[in-house]
């Protein structure tokens, strides 16, 4: 989220996982925590038993609702309006942290003016949340000594994803919850080393530690270190790459540990664009749906067959140690990358993952004090600027990295695609407990597939009655982009008019349906809201 980088850095948790157990209040929005992050979900449940208040904001009746003090069931895609409504109540009732706002933030007057019109009554019309429930939740959050916001892709995967994230920051700063123990804005990252990959510069606009590609001084530092000339121009995001492939401005794509033929929206379009490439290389553990389209497949080793580090969602850098010998010709990712670089005329000579990490510490200020020797004793949370530093439990303690925390006055914008006569239902997508992302590993695992063998379409009983659909019956779900068939499961988890599908299974690839409309800043597609029609197959 480039626009948020100045205040909240990297999309990492500002605080630590363990702090969730001892905070006064947790606001969970856009996160099905118990299924997507079960370890963190267990801590949230434990916290409620200790007396922590829990506010759940979610269109579905997820497992956490059972533990919530209040559940706000918003219409999908209305999160900005909900946040503005909460802040309207907190400001009007004088519940905000006045000294914190005065001393540590800027932009409050513009925020106040913006949220004035988002009365609880107006927000009820937009979001469906009863005005009195909104007031109760606002008082609960503002009244806590410390309050933590946790969110996941239910917040980011919208055309307003950046606005949603900024809204979490607005609410947290308004109540003085950033820079304190048990507080903060805490995104729960989608995979085990997403944070580490981002920290190492696997984003199109930054070098390691979020140092900007466009900054000349930073670029010169890396050019001197790597003895190479580097482009001053930020690269493309995944969705921009697909479009560029279709237009012929990108001739080759190198895919590592990613399966866009199941995870990207509007899969018909993705396949068409990928097939226009002159060359596609896929580096993966299995012959995924994407690898089946590749010109070259490079076999890599699994996490259990390599040394290195992973950095988790709370910024904790941890050692990964090789436990098994790798089969066949499989190599580690870094060995393959070095081999290709050598063949292309750039000598990338490393003897081990440890040697690479030593270089990381030299060019990455937040990792500067971390070493394999120190990691032998346990994980360390960045920033850790010196070998004597103990790591950082929570960020922004005395001041923000930009100086003052910046409030953003944000207007609510509707989702890109809403139901109409032809497509009367809203489809949302996500994960289930037993499977992981595109199922590359989990759908090949016998025990997990026995527990959850196929994709299901969650339908509210009222809708099932109207359409004469029974439990376990095959249904057809159609959007403007495609059709999939899967079995129905009748449940009150989803509200009337809303259906839910997971994206783990290739034989019911829900991303044939999803909308590729992008957030203009974060360039993330609107996976969470798209209009569909539903019928018995």
Class per helix and strand makeup = alpha/beta
Question: Could you name the CATH homologous superfamily of the largest domain?
Answer: Dimethylsulfoxide Reductase, domain 2
Number of domains: 3
Per DSSP E runs of 2 or more residues, the count of β-strands stands at 23
- And the CATH topology of the largest domain? Dimethylsulfoxide Reductase, domain 2
What gap, in angstroms, lies between the N and C termini?
A: 40 Å
Mean pLDDT: 92
**Main beta sheet strand tally, sense and closure:** 6 strands, mixed, barrel
Spans of at least 5 consecutive residues whose pLDDT stays below 50 are 1-9
Indicate the CATH class of the largest domain: Alpha Beta
Large-scale geometry: globular
Question: DSSP helix count?
Answer: 20
* CATH architecture descriptor text of the largest domain: 3-Layer(aba) Sandwich
Beta-strand level of the residues, as a percent range? 15-25%
Residues in helices, as a percent range: 25-40%
For the biggest β-sheet, the strand order reads 16-20-17-19-18-23
What is the CA-based Rg, rounded?
Answer: 23 Å
């Amino acid at each position: 989220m480039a626009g948020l980088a100045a205040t909240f850095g990297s999309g990492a948790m500002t605080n630590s996982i363990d702090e969730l157990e001892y905070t006064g209040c947790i606001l969970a929005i856009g996160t099905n925590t118990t299924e997507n992050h079960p370890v963190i979900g267990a801590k949230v449940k434990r916290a409620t038993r200790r007396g922590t208040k829990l506010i759940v904001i979610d269109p579905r009746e997820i497992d956490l609702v059972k533990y919530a003090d209040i559940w706000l069931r918003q219409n999908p895609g209305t999160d900005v309006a909900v946040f503005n409504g909460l802040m309207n109540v907190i400001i009007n009732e004088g519940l905000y942290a006045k000294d914190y706002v005065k001393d540590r933030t800027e932009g409050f007057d513009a925020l106040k003016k913006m949220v004035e019109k988002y009365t609880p009554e107006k927000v009820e019309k937009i979001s469906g949340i009863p005005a009195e429930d909104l007031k109760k939740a606002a008082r609960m959050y503002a009244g806590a000594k410390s309050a933590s916001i946790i969110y996941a892709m239910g917040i980011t995967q919208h055309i307003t994803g950046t606005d949603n994230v900024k809204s979490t920051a607005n609410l947290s700063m308004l109540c003085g919850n950033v820079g304190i123990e048990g507080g903060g804005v805490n995104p729960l990252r989608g995979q085990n080393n997403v944070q580490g990959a981002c920290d190492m510069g696997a984003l199109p606009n930054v070098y390691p530690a979020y140092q900007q590609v466009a900054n000349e001084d930073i670029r010169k530092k890396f050019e001197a270190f790597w003895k190479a000339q580097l482009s001053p121009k930020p690269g493309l995001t995944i969705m921009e790459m697909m479009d560029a492939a279709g237009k012929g401005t990108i001739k080759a794509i190198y895919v590592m540990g990613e399966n866009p033929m199941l995870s990207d929206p509007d899969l018909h379009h993705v396949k068409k664009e990928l097939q226009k490439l002159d060359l596609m290389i896929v580096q993966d553990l299995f012959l995924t749906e994407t690898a089946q389209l590749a010109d070259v497949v490079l076999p890599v080793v699994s996490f259990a067959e390599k040394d290195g580090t992973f950095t988790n969602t709370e910024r904790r850098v941890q050692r990964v140690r090789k436990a098994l010998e790798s089969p066949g010709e499989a190599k580690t990712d870094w060995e393959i990358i070095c081999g290709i670089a050598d063949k292309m005329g750039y000598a990338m000579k490393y003897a081990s993952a440890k040697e690479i990490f030593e270089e990381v510490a030299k060019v990455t200020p937040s990792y500067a004090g971390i070493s394999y020797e120190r990691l032998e004793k346990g994980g360390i949370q960045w920033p850790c600027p010196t070998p004597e530093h103990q790591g950082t439990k929570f960020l922004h303690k005395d001041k923000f990295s930009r100086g003052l925390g910046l409030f953003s006055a944000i207007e609510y914008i509707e989702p890109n695609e809403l139901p109409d006569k032809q497509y009367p239902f809203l489809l949302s997508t996500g994960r289930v407990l037993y499977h992981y992302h595109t199922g590359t590993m989990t759908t090949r695992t016998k025990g997990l597939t026995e527990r959850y063998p196929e994709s299901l379409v969650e339908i509210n009983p009222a809708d099932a009655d109207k359409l004469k659909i029974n439990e376990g019956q095959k249904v057809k779900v159609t959007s403007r982009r495609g059709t999939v068939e899967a079995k129905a499961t009748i449940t009150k988890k989803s509200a009337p008019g809303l259906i839910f599908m997971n994206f783990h299974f290739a034989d019911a690839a829900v991303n044939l349906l999803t909308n590729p409309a992008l957030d203009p800043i974060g360039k993330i597609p609107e996976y969470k809201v798209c209009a569909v029609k539903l019928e018995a197959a």
